């Protein structure tokens, strides 16, 4: 009876071995990954802070992965053009996306139709950096503190306007949060990008705006813009004399413009895990950390689970505010 079973068992064993050599496991794929250039879609214009972040981190990732990371700028529609392109791309680890609060949190509350689901269509790789935000004013306004700005806005509701780098941006929502916490009414004037918004505040066409450190530090240090307060939990090392909004009596106003990397949801887990490890290692590299900090960014290290948890908590916070203030961009 044993003699009859053995030949059959050997045939099955040989067939299984042959099949294993023909169909590599995901672990084998991950070990060989990447075998070709990786496309990194940045849904923002070239030359800005988001582009700088991707190119700085990407240059280090190239060294670690041994393959080029090709930065492709796909701006437009509040990052939705670039995000949709990645959501619909092949889930093989060769297309990644960097997005921000707008991409993963704000858009689904501000727009009725968003061509992707930030939770179902993407797998988080990890957070990369955050941009501290500052409320600034043109020196001609005479504002020196947040209290002076709020008092002026309350004295004559609707007279003051503020610029933002774009409707639905973290900068826009940060000022809406300030308005909610203080009861002040300041009219929103959205721009398409930081450059034109900053230019009009520098020229005193508009009196105030929320600006990030990457764009704003140079103008603050030159005296062309007056910092009224920072939206961080603690004072910024770059601006130690500028108080937080919390210090000035405006509670629960910690806001950052943060950025993270994702891949299409169906990307093999081994490949996603490798990207998470390499991204964290790249950001921790002293040269990368130095460049980001000099540009005004705060590097963030973390894994995919931490990014997913952060998106969840941010969504609960901001969707409630957007609904309460009846904000819509449709």
Radius of gyration: 24 Å
Largest sheet: 10 strands, mixed
CATH class of the largest domain: Alpha Beta
What is the fourth-level CATH superfamily of the largest domain? Bordetella uptake gene, domain 1
Terminal Cα separation, in Å?
76 Å
Please state the second-level CATH architecture of the largest domain.
Answer: 3-Layer(aba) Sandwich
**What is the share of helical residues?**
40-55%
Instruction: Count helical runs.
Output: 12
Number of DSSP-assigned strands: 10
| Mean pLDDT across every amino acid position | 91
H/E series: HHEHEHEHEHEHEHEHEEHHEH
Secondary structure category: alpha/beta
Structure write-up:
The chain has twelve helices and ten strands. With 330 residues, the chain is an alpha/beta fold. The protein folds into two domains: 36-130 and 257-324, Bordetella uptake gene, domain 1 (D-Maltodextrin-Binding Protein, domain 2); 132-230, 3-Layer(aba) Sandwich (D-Maltodextrin-Binding Protein, domain 2), CATH 3.40.190. Strands 1, 2, 3, 4, 5, 6, 7, 8, 9 and 10 form a ten-stranded mixed beta sheet that branches. Helix 3 (49-65) packs across helix 10 (269-284), helix 3 packs antiparallel against helix 11 (286-295) and helix 5 packs parallel to helix 12 (304-324). The longest helix has 21 residues, at 2-22. Residues 1-10 and 12-20 have low confidence and may be disordered.
């Amino acid at each position: 009876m044993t003699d009859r079973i053995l030949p059959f068992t050997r045939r099955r064993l040989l067939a299984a071995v042959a099949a294993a050599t023909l169909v590599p496991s995901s672990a084998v794929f991950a070990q060989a990954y990447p075998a070709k250039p990786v496309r990194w879609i940045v849904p923002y214009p070239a030359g800005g802070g988001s582009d700088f972040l991707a190119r700085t981190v990407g240059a280090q990732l190239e060294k670690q992965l041994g393959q080029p990371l090709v930065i492709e700028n796909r701006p437009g529609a509040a990052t939705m053009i670039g995000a949709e392109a990645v959501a619909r791309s092949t889930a093989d680890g060769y297309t990644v996306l960097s997005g921000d609060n707008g991409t993963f949190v704000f858009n689904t509350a501000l727009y009725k139709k968003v061509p992707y689901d930030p939770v179902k269509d993407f797998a988080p790789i990890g957070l990369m950096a955050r941009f501290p935000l500052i409320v600034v004013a043109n020196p001609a306004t005479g504002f020196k503190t947040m209290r002076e700005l709020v008092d002026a806005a309350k004295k004559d509701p609707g007279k003051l306007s503020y610029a933002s780098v774009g409707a639905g941006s973290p900068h826009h929502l940060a000022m809406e949060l300030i308005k909610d916490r203080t009861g002040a009414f300041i009219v929103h004037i959205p721009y398409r990008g930081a450059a034109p918004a900053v230019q009009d505040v520098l020229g005193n066409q508009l009196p105030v705006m929320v600006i990030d450190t990457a764009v704003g530090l140079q103008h603050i240090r030159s005296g062309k813009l007056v910092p009224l307060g920072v939206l961080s939990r603690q004072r910024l090392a770059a601006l130690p004399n500028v108080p937080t909004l919390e210090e000035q009596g405006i509670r629960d106003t910690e806001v950052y413009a943060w950025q993270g990397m994702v891949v299409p949801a169906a990307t093999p887990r081994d490949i996603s895990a490798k990207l998470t490890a390499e991204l964290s290692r790249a950001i921790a590299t002293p040269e990368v950390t130095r460049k980001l900090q000099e540009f005004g960014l705060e590097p963030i290290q973390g894994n995919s689970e931490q990014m997913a948890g952060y998106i969840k908590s941010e969504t609960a916070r901001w969707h409630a505010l957007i609904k309460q203030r009846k904000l819509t961009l449709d």
